[in-house]
């Protein structure tokens, strides 16, 4: 009987129950009992599963946790998306605005030749690469070589993070396999690394500091872009060769062993000095490309980074990478109020006037920076590149050998360098030409003469390559026009300087 509880039941419920009973020929009480039993059974199976899983975890499962701020995290997610998740249909995915610089879709929907007078609105242009849908959270059991690996990626519990910021949050990415040894997962991780290297072979990733949701400052990838071709960096051939050889030798594993055998800390530092816009950052980026290294950019002027964080970040960079510390003079770094001593070489080339010392604008003191560079916790194996516009204002302690092993001075361009810039702008150096002679042969006829004329119309060692490049960008497709207009541009610049 339905009325067994003795509680009054609305007549509407009565008629609904009668309707179900008559039309389906089923007793709703029986249905309710079946439902209760099924729910109980499912809950028990789940519970048993959990108990079994935690028992297996303790006895026969090997587990590897990966923290979200480790570069491996992104690499594993990438591998899973491109392999294990590829053929499965997910209904809950992560939508991402694509950072890809691949313009194929846009190029397809535009006319082949650029019409200078026809303006294109990119709102209406189809860009099918702008949104990516990726499986993100969830579990997946997959076979790798001869082992079964369970990948689990839990969603971030933001509530817990904001409530208990001091508590170490459980790592969200977990790999497990039925084995008493970690070697199947180790093999898998090696494969993940190799795959990630293959995918980004011609790209360099730039890392900068970012404060995460737990208010902890960490390295974070901000861009992955094609590396700059070293041939496009204009610099005295001898200087370019010297630094490339030096880094090549330094990075070789034999050199590392040599340092270890001789008890010398395995570190190498470079100082790039020169006026603004002469190619210091461009060379650092091209070096990273040549040696397939990622760049970690630190700024002494970043107000969010304290001295201890600065030292920690320095010690957290990977073994082979470029750490770029830009404009170290701009931070007004000095030993408290002590006026920094001039370096011998810098003093030789600087003006006889004493250099005005800017007040310190950084949370990092000179001793903090020295500590980060070669203190006890400082990382070995990295390449440190510091750039400055005013080497004469740097403390000698900062640029002593061991901290700065090679000083590359950039100058305002000579006629020869201006000629090279012109040729760079108007020749197609996207082709992978093996030697210089081959490169010359491929140049459009007459370009060499134009380049010579252009360079001679400009005064030597007066304007930076960045300034001249800015002028040339107005005539991207018309080298002749650039030559015709360069003299009036020089006059304008001179008037501007005087004013
Ligand atoms: N030596 C050079 N070779 C090729 N391009 C250069 C060179 N110098 C400057 N440029 C061009 O000028 C622009 C600025 O160069 P870059 O940022 O490398 O200069 P910088 O010396 O680091 O300047 P700053 O001291 O202001 O940071 C870049 O777009 C680069 O292409």
List the SSEs and their pairings.
Blueprint: H1 11-24, H2 28-59, E1 61-66, H3 71-82, E2 94-97, H4 104-108, E3 131-134, E4 138-144, E5 147-153, H5 158-163, E6 173-178, H6 183-199, E7 203-211, E8 217-226, H7 237-251, H8 253-261, E9 268-273, H9 280-291, E10 295-298, H10 307-315, E11 322-325, H11 344-349, H12 366-374, E12 383-388, E13 406-409, H13 415-426, H14 436-441, H15 447-457, H16 465-472, H17 479-498
Parallel strand pairs: 7-10, 9-12, 9-13, 10-11, 11-12
Antiparallel strand pairs: 1-6, 2-3, 4-5, 5-6, 7-8
Helix pairs in contact: 3-6, 10-12, 13-15, 13-16, 15-17
The site of adenosine-5'-triphosphate (ATP) has 16 residues, from α9 and α16.
Keywords: ATP-binding, Hydrolase, Membrane, Mitochondrion, Mitochondrion inner membrane, Nucleotide-binding, Transmembrane, Transmembrane helix
Pfam families: AAA (PF00004), AAA_lid_BCS1 (PF25426), BCS1_N (PF08740)
Main location: mitochondrion
Task: Report what the structure shows.
This protein starts with 10 loop residues before the first helix and ends with a helix. α3 crosses α6, α10 (307-315) packs parallel to α12 and α15 packs parallel to α17. Helix content is 41%, strand content 15%. The protein has helices spanning 11-24, 28-59, 71-82, 104-108, 158-163, 183-199, 237-251, 253-261, 280-291, 307-315, 344-349, 366-374, 415-426, 436-441, 447-457, 465-472, 479-498, and strands at 61-66, 94-97, 131-134, 138-144, 147-153, 173-178, 203-211, 217-226, 268-273, 295-298, 322-325, 383-388, 406-409. With 499 residues, the chain is α/β, with parallel strands linked by helices. It has 17 helices and 13 strands. It folds into 3 domains: 59-100 and 128-199, no CATH class; 225-409, Rossmann fold (3-Layer(aba) Sandwich); 415-498, no CATH class. The strands form 3 sheets. A 7-stranded mixed β-sheet has the order 8-7-10-11-12-9-13, sandwiched between helices. The protein has a 4-stranded antiparallel β-sheet with strand order 1-6-5-4. Strands 2-3 form a two-stranded antiparallel ribbon. The chain binds adenosine-5'-triphosphate. Adenosine-5'-triphosphate (ATP) binds next to α9 and α16. This is P-loop containing nucleoside triphosphate hydrolase protein.
């Amino acid at each position: 009987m339905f009325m067994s509880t003795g509680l009054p039941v609305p007549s509407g419920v009565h008629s609904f129950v009668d309707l179900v009973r008559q039309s389906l020929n089923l007793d709703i009480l029986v249905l309710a009992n079946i439902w209760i039993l099924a729910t109980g059974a499912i809950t028990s199976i789940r519970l048993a599963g959990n108990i079994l899983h935690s028992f297996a975890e303790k006895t026969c499962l090997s587990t590897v946790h990966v923290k979200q701020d480790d570069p491996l995290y992104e690499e594993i997610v990438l591998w899973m998306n491109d392999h294990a998740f590829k053929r499965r249909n997910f209904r809950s995915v992560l939508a991402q605005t694509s950072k890809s610089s691949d313009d194929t879709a846009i190029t397809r929907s535009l006319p082949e030749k650029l019409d200078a007078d026809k303006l294109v609105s990119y709102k209406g242009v189809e860009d099918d690469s702008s949104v990516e849908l990726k499986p993100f959270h969830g579990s997946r059991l997959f076979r790798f070589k001869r082992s079964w690996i369970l990948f689990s990626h839990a969603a971030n519990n933001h509530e817990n993070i904001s409530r208990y910021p001091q508590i170490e949050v459980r790592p969200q990415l977990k790999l497990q396999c039925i084995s008493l040894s970690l070697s199947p997962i180790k093999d898998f991780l090696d494969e993940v690394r190799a795959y990630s290297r293959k995918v980004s072979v011609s790209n360099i990733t730039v890392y900068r500091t970012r404060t995460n949701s737990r208010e902890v400052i960490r390295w974070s990838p901000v861009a992955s872009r094609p590396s700059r071709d070293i041939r496009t960096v204009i610099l005295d051939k001898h200087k370019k060769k010297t630094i490339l050889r030096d880094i090549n030798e330094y990075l070789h594993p034999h050199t590392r062993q040599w340092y270890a055998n001789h008890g010398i800390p395995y570190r190498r530092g470079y100082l790039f000095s020169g006026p603004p816009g002469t190619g210091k950052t461009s060379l650092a980026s091209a070096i990273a490309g040549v040696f397939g290294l990622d760049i970690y950019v630190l700024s002494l002027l970043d107000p969010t980074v304290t001295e201890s964080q600065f030292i920690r970040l320095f010690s957290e960079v990977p073994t082979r990478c470029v750490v770029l510390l830009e404009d170290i003079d701009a931070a007004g770094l000095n030993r408290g109020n002590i006026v920094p001593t001039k370096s011998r070489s810098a003093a030789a080339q600087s003006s006889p006037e004493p250099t005005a010392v800017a007040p310190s604008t950084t949370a990092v003191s000179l001793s903090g920076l020295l500590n980060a560079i070669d203190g006890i916790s400082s990382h070995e194996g990295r390449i440190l590149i510091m750039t400055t516009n005013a080497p004469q204002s740097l403390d000698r302690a900062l640029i002593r050998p061991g901290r700065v092993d090679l000083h590359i001075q950039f100058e305002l361009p000579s006629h020869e360098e201006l000629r090279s810039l012109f040729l760079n702008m108007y020749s197609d150096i996207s082709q992978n030409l093996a030697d210089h002679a081959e490169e010359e042969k491929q140049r459009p006829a007459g370009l060499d003469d134009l380049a010579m004329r252009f360079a001679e119309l400009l005064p030597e060692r007066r304007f930076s390559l960045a300034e001249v490049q800015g002028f040339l960008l107005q005539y991207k497709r018309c080298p002749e026009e650039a030559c015709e207009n360069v003299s009036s541009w020089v006059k304008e610049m001179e008037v501007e300087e005087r004013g």
